[in-house]
Amino acid sequence: MLEHKLITKRIGNINPESIDDYLKHDGYKMLEKALSMRRIEIHDNFEASKLRGRGGAGFPVSVKLMALAKESRTPKYVVCNADEGEPGNFKDRYLMEHDPHQIIEGMLIAAYATVATQGYIYIRGEYANAMRIMQKAIDDARERGYLGKNILGKRFAFDIEIRQGAGSYVCGEEFALLESIEGKAGRTRVKPPFPTSVGLFGQPTLINNVETLATFPAIIDIGGEAFAKIGTESSTGTKLISLSGNIKNKGVFEVPFGISMRDIITKLGGGVPNGRKIKMIQLGGACGPIIPEYMLDMVIDFERFEEFESKTGAGAIIVIDDRFDVFDILKRISAFFEHESCGKCTPCREGNLHMLKTVEKFVDYKATEKDLNALESLARVMHQTSLCGLGQTAPTAVISTLHYFRFSYLNRIEESNIEEAA
Ligand SMILES: Cc1cc2nc3c(=O)[nH]c(=O)nc-3n(C[C@H](O)[C@H](O)[C@H](O)COP(=O)(O)O)c2cc1C
Ligand code: SF4
Fold this sequence. Notes:
Elements: H1 19-24, H2 29-35, H3 39-49, H4 61-70, E1 77-82, H5 91-98, H6 100-114, E2 118-123, H7 128-143, E3 159-164, H8 174-181, E4 205-209, H9 210-222, H10 224-228, E5 238-245, E6 251-256, H11 261-268, E7 278-283, E8 290-292, H12 302-306, E9 316-321, H13 326-340, H14 346-363, H15 369-385, H16 389-393, H17 396-404, H18 406-416
Parallel strand pairs: 1-2, 1-4, 2-3, 5-9
Antiparallel strand pairs: 5-6, 7-8, 7-9
């Protein structure tokens, strides 16, 4: 089975702006079920599910849930990360625009399991339509008694507010996001402490991605063990893939972990148009590795991706055909990170600037062997010493191309024909 519709099963069958449609399709039934369970049973299900975060880092969800549940300080918060600023990713927007109540239901289950009372959804500023749909869903859920006090007649209170991002990529990073909700400039903090102990307004906070939270009702529905049977040993469940670039069928596909990229690109994506050939694929988004066509049989799996010193990212696959030059692609990526660096730490602030300048030399046929060596060590230093994930992953595309497309660097140096200074 190529697609496995677990969290996208309602999409296309409901009007996302109708709470009645959602209720007709078993909406809020999993909240009801969760409220009838003991909290420890809910935690056991999440542990058995082996669900890992879908926002990029793949952190085990049950560890965060348990850490928040154990905190006695109140109030506690549940924050949904809907910033989705990574180029090539659009699956969170898809979920918000097509099944908003499922996200609210997921947040409610998280809140009940951890005794949190207030939720926030931090939505990327450019997502005006998603914001409108989510706000209507929140208002409707509150009107029907799914948000507010005494939810479903229980001693359980939880409400949600939306916060709008302002177009900064780093605000998707969890601490920068929390600072932004607090009304400060979106900059990361040194960790530990982690958000589950010192998060929003200094209080215990769970922060998860849209897709992660949208998966919570499905786990309550089928149970943690059944969920863990979908996918692979280390990567359970399904993953939403944002498929884009030079591909016939662009869009969002829900697939089980363990599917190969070749199947996604050729069978779901319909391959590359106009008889062109695939030259390279960027995985995860701008912060992900660029790999050659011959690696397409690699499967979607957290562990496999970690071999690239990278994470699965949020599940973007960007297909690039044979018309494109690797250095033009790297220039765009480097310019993006140079622009988005918040400037707080030196390796990222200065590193991205130098990386862009060096990549430009390759674009302009002005590169030497020295530039290649400098690029290589700069990329490593940035990866190892930057303060947050932005600076740590900004050089991933360069590092991966230095490995898989080294011949392109060497050819370009030869074509540049610049005399090396002694
Ligand atoms: C620069 C940067 C940008 C990020 N952007 C997002 C984002 O847009 N959405 C998201 O869910 N996580 C993003 N993350 C990851 C978050 O810091 C955090 O790990 C995530 O929200 C946790 O949710 P999860 O465990 O459900 O994946 C970003 C991380 C970094 C370093
Ligand atoms: S790595 Fe970049 S984005 Fe992160 S704190 Fe340092 S300068 Fe800011």
